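hey all, quick one before standup. I had two proteins in the batch that finished overnight and I want to keep them in one place so we stop losing track of which output belongs to which input. First protein below, input sequence then C-alpha cells straight from the run.
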Amino acid sequence: MRAAAVDDAAQALLAAWDTAREQAIPRLSWPQLNALIAVEQQEGINLRGLAAELKMILSSASRLCDRLVAAGLMERVPGRVDRREIALYLTPSSRQLLEELRSARRAILTEVLNRMSPGGRAALVRGLVEFSAAAAEPASDSARTA
C-alpha cells in the first residue's frame, strides 16, 4: 500500500520534471540530458566511463557525445595523463541550460507545494530526506533475497 502511494507520487514528480525539461530544454532528449548531468557530476570523465554511467555501449555513447559536441554543449579534450584518452567537459552553454532546467523544475515544484498544507509540505520534506538517505544505503541481505 505504501509503495503504491510512493509510486503514484513518483509519477507526478516525473511528470513535473518532464514538463520542466520541455520548457527549459525542449531540443534535448533524455539520454542527452543524462549525459550532460553525468559529465557535470564527473568533470573530465572519459567516454568509456560515460558509457558505463549511462549503461550504453561505447559506440552509442560516442555518437551521443558527437551530437552534443556539434550542438556546442560538450567539449572533448585530450586527457592530461594519456593524450589518446578523451576527457569530456561541459560548455558554458550547457551549464546555462542545466541551470535553466533546475529553475524551471523548482518553479513547477514550488507551484505544487504551495497547493499543499504547511503540515503536508513539512512531512513530505522530512520523508523525502529520509527516503534519500535510505536509498543511498546498501541493501541489506534480507532485502536482496526478498
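OK second protein, same deal, sequence then C-alpha cells:
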Amino acid sequence: MAPSARPDGRLLVPLLTALVAAVLAGVFVVPTLVEAFRDGKSGDGPLRYVDPASIPGTMMDETAAREFFKPCIGGPSRFQYDPVAWVVLKPNSVGKPIEWPEHPSGHLRQDTNNMGFREDAPTTVEKHGYRILVTGDSHTDGAVYNSESYANVLEALLDHALDPSGATAPVEVINAGVGGTGPHNYLAMLQKYLNLKPDVVIAGLYVGNDFMNALMQSDFFTKRKTRGRDATYKAKLNAALEAYPDLPQQGYNQPYLFKYCEGDAELALDRAVEVFEGIARVCADNHMRFVVLVIPCKADVDGDDDRERIEGMLKLLELSPEEFAVNRWLSDHFVERLREKGIDVLDPTQAMIDEPAPLYWRKDHHLSTAGHAFVARLLFEHLHDAVAADIAAAAAAGAGAAGNVTR
C-alpha cells in the first residue's frame, strides 16, 4: 500500500542541513544516483547495482563520481565530471541524429552550447535581458531538439508577449537540464551558475525517480545502510529491463524499490523537500524568484496511450496498483509541504490528465514535443504577469531589464 502519512521524525535533518550548507560553500555536491546503470547503451550489458553507503568517503570527488555515474562520465558519452555540479553536459557538443519515429521529423538531436546548456546560441555571463535559469533531469534536458524544450518554448512565448514585433528578445531562458541528475544536482547547478544572475530559477522535479534519487544521494553522505538487493529483486528488475529497456527509470523502478525497502518512501519525501527548501533559500538570498515545476509520470497522466506496456511492466515487477500509486502520493505530499513553506509550485498533473492528446513519447515515456509545449504554456501563464512587472519595475528604477529586481 502507498504510505498514508508523513513520518514522525526527521533524524537526518541536522546532517542534511550541514550537507546543503557545504554545497552552497562549494565544498562538494551530492550526486544523483540512478539505482541501476547499464554498462553501455540502453538495452546493452549487465545491470550494475550501486549501494551508496558502500562507496568510500563522504566527499564527492571525481573517483566517487565516476563510480556513481558509470558509464555516463567518460568515454564518448554526453556527460563529463564537474567539481561543483558533479556531472554536466559536455560543452559545444553536436549530437548524432537519433532515430525517433514518433518525432515529426523521424529523428532528434541533443546539442549543447559553449557552457554545456541545451541551447543553440552561446550563453554569455553578461546579461542582455531578463534571465531565467531552468534546472532538471532528462525531462528538462529533453528528448527533443533544443528549440522544442519547454525552456526554449517558454522563452519564445514570453518574448512574443512582451514584444510582439519581434524587434527585441526581452527574455533569455537557459535550459541547464542534465539527464540522469536529481534534486541535489539542481541545487548544485544553481550554485555553479550564480554568476549568471538569473532573475528566475525554475527547478523541474520528475515524480518518477527524483525522490529515489534524493534519498540515495543522501545515503552516500550519511552512510545509511539499506536492505541489500537480493537475487529475487535483481531478477525481476532484470526481466523488466530486458522486456522494456527504456522504461524502468521512468516511474517504475522507484515504487519497486520503495516496496522492497519499507519506510524509504517517507524518508525520500523528506530528503527531496529539504533540498528544494535549500534551493528556495539560495534564491531568496540572491533576490531571485523560484518556481518548482512538478513533472508527473506518463502512467499517471496519459497511461492509456501505452497501457499494454505499462501493465506489462507492473506485472514483471509484481507491483499492485496501490503500490504503484506511491509516485502520486509522493508528488501530492511534496507539493503540499512546499506550499506550506510558501514556495511557489506549479503542478500541472491535473491539467495534463485533462488533456486528451498524449504528452509523452511511447518509446521511453519522456515528455514529447507536445508535452514540452504544453508545460511551456502553463509556465508562461504562471510567470507572464510577474516577469512583465519585474521588467517594468527595473526599467522604471533605471536599472534596466538586465539587473535583478529586489523582491
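Flagging for whoever picks this up: The chain is about 40% helix and 10% strand. The longest strand covers residues 200-206.
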